Amino acid sequence: MNGTKRAIPQPLPKLSTGIEGFDDLSRGGLPRNRTSLIVGGPGAGKTVFALQSLVNGIRRRQEAGIFVAFEEAPRQVIANGATFDWGLAALAKSKLFLLDACLSPTAIQSGEFDLVGMLAMLKAKKQEIGAEWIAFDGIDVLLTLLHDPVAEMREIYRLRDWLADNALTAIVTAKLDNGHSGAPHYGFMQFMADCVIRLERRLEHGVSTHRLGIAKYRGSDFAAGEFPVSFGPSGIEVGAAEPAEIRHEASIERLSSGFERLDAMLGGGLFRGSSTLITGVPGTSKTTLAGKFAEAACRRGERTLFVSFDEGAEPIARNLSSVGIQLKPHVKSGLLRMYSARTETISAEDHLLKIRALIREHRPRCMVIDPLTAIAKAGGLVAARAVANRLIYMIKDERVTVVITALNEGDDPQAESTDLQISSIADTWIHLSYLVRSGERNRALTIVKSRGTWHSNQVRELVLSATGPKLTDVYTAGGEVLMGTLRWEKEAEESARETRRYAEFDHKRRELQSAEAHTGAQIKALQLDLQRQQAELAMYSNDNEVRNTTTSDREEKLRKMRSADPAARAPGAAAAHARRRIAPDPEKKGGNGATQ
Questions:
Q1: Percent of residues, the chain, with pLDDT higher than 70
Q2: Which domains does the chain have, with CATH numbers?
Q3: pTM for the whole thing?
Q4: 411-417: long-range contacts, CB 8 A cutoff, minimum separation 24
């Protein structure tokens, strides 16, 4: 250790351009008090990029700027800029100075030309308005007119030195032709600039697409690669790279999918902030389920965004009303925003940026995209896959609960759901299909997956009616699920069989009740006969006892009347007398007199 302190690296000072997405790619904007070169072909957006950076500097931080136009007159620049919400005409009267630097070829070729006079005038203007930005738009026009490589390099170096002396954050734009400098002898400009940005416009599958890439950035990190560019109301928007780390929140709050039976199949509904994919061939009611979800969200008072492709909002609302789903009242209340787009008019990246703008404008809590697979027609399948993945992640970053429909062109339910290959990142996957049998087509619903919750594995019939969609009970026969007419016929057959079984049971029950009553009557009659016989037996026994008692008493009375001694009984006579009292035998005569 020699005691010396290690120098702490200082970050490169930057100025924000205010261009959506670009400041993220460049890690803060353009280098302060240095030169940035914007190159690209015709219509790539070079002028818009430079002018938008100056306008944002004025509107956001009151940083005045100078715009030097080598190709267009200032009035043309202002007229073109009026298509954006910049208020360019008003800014040009105060904080933005537009210099007409258009030069005619005859003026340049008639004698020696340099930028000394113009740069001196620009320095005075910079001090007058306190400019921090300056843009040289179309510098290649000037260099092309010089027709002298030595003069071109001299003027470029003169410009570089002047910018360094005046501490201005500079933007220089120049054209490229098919990715190469239109004039190769001034390609050295890219080596002189501290930051080089390439803008490109090209056709992909018949759709015009715009791309932006940072070729180099001295002293700073930046996001490498090409990124989509679109043009919105505020100018250029760049689709910045998504964060490498996924940090989505996991809510345990449940939301209704639109009707109770589907919620029950999902174990209680959808999780807040989750993504649900509904796939199926055309006509399987994907839009109907999505519309039911949107209607339920609006009924809860939640702001909802419904994005549809290749079908207008009015027809969608009309069609859904036929199955009991009413969206128009929620559109009128402002809770529901419906946006419809033609997929083939702009690229998939432009669709992504438009949806992002709609989300930031409407701030929905729930959202529908119907069908997402339509964007595959806008610029090719590869671009559409990338956009679909980024779109789902972006929506989840915004904590929006989204239902996405996707068209499946095949009939094989075991195949990948869509060409976009988004089923792996969706939290819930509902698949709709047709069951064609016995001359009719019926809709079937099954849940392929639902992360974090129990869900049904049953195939349920989806039935549409004027009161809305509903799921019927699972009905099986012989191990096979029946739907439609087959189900109705089987149910009717089972109902008739049940009716017959009940009639037979009722008839048998009545027979048994009659037999039971008959047997009861017989038992009652036997009980009465038994009681009669018991009564007769008791009466006979009592009569016999009374007769025996009377005879004995009369004999005893006669002895007393005759003053005779009591009769002496022989041994065993008492027992015999007792037996006679109990069971007298009228057939034996003189039994009582034997003891006299």
A1: 81
A2: 14-238 (3.40.50.300), 262-474 (3.40.50.300)
A3: 0.66
A4: 411/281, 413/446, 417/277, 417/279, 417/448
